Amino acid sequence: MPVPYDVRQVEERWRQRWEAEGVGSVDLDAVDPSDVFYNLAEFPYPSAEGLHVGHVFRYAGVDVYGRYQRMAGKHVFQPIGFDAFGIHTENYALKVGEHPSSLTARTTARFRRQLERIGAAWDWSRMIDTSHPEYYRWTQWILVRLFEAGLLYRAEAPVIWCPSCLTVLAQEQTERDGAVCERCESAVTQRAMTQWFLRITDYADRLLAGLDDLDWPERAKRLQRQWIGRSEGREITFGDLTVFTTRPDTLPAVTFLAVPPGHPAAGDTRPHPITGASIPVYEADYVVEAYGTGAVMGVPAHDERDRRFAEEHAIPISDADLLEPSAAASVGAPATRYRLRDWLISRQRYWGPPIPIVHCRDCGAVAVPEDELPVLLPEVDEFRPTGTGQSPLTAAHGWVNTSCPQCGGPARRDTDVSDTFVDSAWYFLRYPSTEYNDRAWDPDRTAKVLPVDFYAGGPEHVQRHHLYARFVTMALHDLGLVPFEEPFPRIRIGGMIVKDGAKMSKSRGNVVTPDDYIDTVGSDALRCGLLFSAPWEQGGDFTDAAIAGIERFFAKSWKTITGPDGDPADELAMARSIHAVTEAIERLAFNVAIARLMELLSEVGSPASKRIFVRLLAPFAPHLAEELWHRLGEPFSVHTQPWPQYDGRLLEDEEVEIVVQVDGKVRGTITVPRDAPEPDVCEIARRDVEALGTDDSRVVYVPGRVVNFVTGSDG
Question: Which residues of the chain are under the pLDDT cut of 70?
Fold first, then answer.
């Protein structure tokens, strides 16, 4: 049963008024820094025909949290924009046969309309588009500053090449242990090419150490630690070849050495450092010359990959005894290695910011001066990747040929563009300062608003965007350009929504756009239907039955709030509900909060209880709540009203303190409602304790007393 009004008309009317009266905006110069709450969702790639309901699930959760913070007294800064440059957009342009510039204009307009219609309180006055010159001017400026600091450099190196995307890839843009492109899933190859890199490896230890103080999901921190991959071991020489190993005790069982294809030692032998035996040297695709020492020792008796290689090449497998710990500790020299490699940022594509460097025969690589930025991306008719290792920009001769900023002699512009992750590595710094044309960000504004208070993203970005943004922020801090090292002290990862049990994809034909629902049941029903379907941080299955249930809830809410007033509500029941909804929002358990609202409705009848209910409903169903608030005769807007409060003394006997343990060791305590369900108690405990965090840990719950996470480690 739908609500008894024209949903589309009412929602559009309230959205227009919110925009006109600036309900979603904040005067950043007028507010106290302690009251600013920077609430940020990862901006979308406008690289398809529009959002699907999975996007709405994540964005709705962020908006609920922001609206709650606003009603709780914060000045919420919640901007939005478009990550429009890069391979995602260009590949889509190639697919549909449209130039990226016209395609981007069309798709961003559609994305914006969809983002407006979902009822989120975006501050559109701060919108950014990474493909606009007024934005990428500052992307280029950052690269110039990093170049001047020695953090951006050009070098020839073996690189990962995608034969389908026809460009190089960063290590982080591959999957299946570096075997395929994460974008198109084509098998990648290696080429020796001269490319631009950022020295992220200089920051490896700081990136690792900084994770300890971040309020991130433990799994996200673990993934970054694994990607950085700090290993301590020994460097051991086999003649003129040096290998690094974390298992020097296996040295007696070495039966071969592996080097990259084309290495001059391939096919030869090298002496074993202990026995002096001749160890054969083989070419292996899994060894990369530029990484580590460029050689790997093969121990097939103790390593599965080495065993497979040995069996394929009929190499003996030795069962020699392992070295004693004291002997292993004295072999070779101590060394530390990282899995992380310098960030390869140059791309042989068209749709991106040109790298702001010119090449002069006399002066070498010279940065473009700040007053000549941006280096505008030239308009070209043929933007398809060449596949030759040269960018399509190479053919724009009038643009390529220029003069050297240093000596005035003839020079050529660099024809590569920077990777899309460079654009997003700093966009959060730009949002608060979009009105400034003479600086990337205003120092005073930045110090007031940043770092980001709450950042919501996807799991696919933990080892890419989140890592790159941390590195760039640390580098900018070292250059004295920002007053903090960590951009995102608190991150939460939104889950993935599937439709009727299957991941949404075009190939399955089950992609569901928000328009399908907004046009019929409205955005409030879609928001709440999605958020009620599954825990926000886990995701789950979205069905039309969830929408139908929310429609019934809305109809009952409408009837209750607009109907005759009833008896005063039970004060204890109201206090319990306010506490439960508040606590659920704060831990992002939006499905639980909606369930508590449904339960509360049976207690609502008096004028005071009606107004409390509508304010509790407002973050979830902003249009419906605004309309109900209006029908109650209250002044505009419900979203600027204070969050309902309750007398905490009423609940003193309603709560219990639970001890939280990891492998039997006390890590802290939590306070929960005495009747809280076991899953809720365990989830609160999991969030509260740092480093407990394996997803496969076993939970032992003693009701009302103890939650113990059994990880199988020493704790």
Answer: 1, 172, 289-292, 504-509, 688-697, 712-715
Nearest-5° angle of CA 414, CA 419, CA 421?
145
**Domain end point (choices 292, 316, 338):** 338
Q: Report d(CA 127, CA 131) in Å as an integer.
A: 12
Question: What is the C-alpha separation between 461 and 557, in angstroms, rounded?
Answer: 39
Residues 510, 519 contacting (CB under 8 angstroms): no
Task: Name, in order, each residue with C-beta under 8 angstroms of 221's C-beta and a sequence gap of 6 or more.
Answer: 211, 214
Confidence at residue 448, expressed as pLDDT on a 0 to 100 scale: 96
pLDDT at 715: 38
Within 13 A of 409's CA, how many CA atoms are on the CB side? 9
Residue type, 452: V
Residue reference for tokens 């390869």: 344
Looking at residue 190, what is its pLDDT? 81
Cis peptide before 34 (omega within 30 of 0): no
Q: What is the pLDDT of residue 290?
A: 57
Instruction: State the pLDDT at residue 524.
Output: 98
Give the whole-angstrom CA distance, residue 603 versus residue 660: 34
| Total tally of structural domains belonging to the chain | 4
Tell me the C-alpha distance between 276 and 266, whole Å: 19
Within 486-609, strands assigned E span: 491-493, 496-499, 502-503, 539-542
Please state the pTM of the whole predicted model.
Answer: 0.89
Convert the pLDDT of each residue in 537-550 to its tens digit: 999 998 899 999 99
What is the pLDDT at residue 692? 41
Which residue blocks in 568-650 are alpha helix, DSSP H? 571-586, 590-600, 607-617, 622-631
The neighbouring-strand residues paired with 167 are 162
The span from the CA of 341 to the CA of 201, in Å, is 6
> Which string of DSSP letters, residue by residue, matches 625-642?
HHHHHHHTTPPS-GGGSP
The answer to whether residue 111 is domain-embedded is yes
Bridge partners, 7 (sequence order): none
- Check whether residue 572 and residue 665 sit in a common domain: no
Sequence-separated (6 or more) residues with CB below 8 Å from residue 267: 281
State the Cα–Cα distance between residues 115 and 59, nearest whole angstrom.
9
Cβ-proximal residues to 551 (8 Å cutoff; 6+ apart), any chain: 1, 2, 3, 521, 525
| Residue located via tokens 């030795």 | 318
Q: Are residues 644 and 697 in the same domain?
A: no
Q: Give the residue from 304, 338, 372 where a domain finishes.
A: 338
Torsion, Cα 157 163 168 174, to 10 degrees, reads -100
Note down the domain range covering 704: 653-710
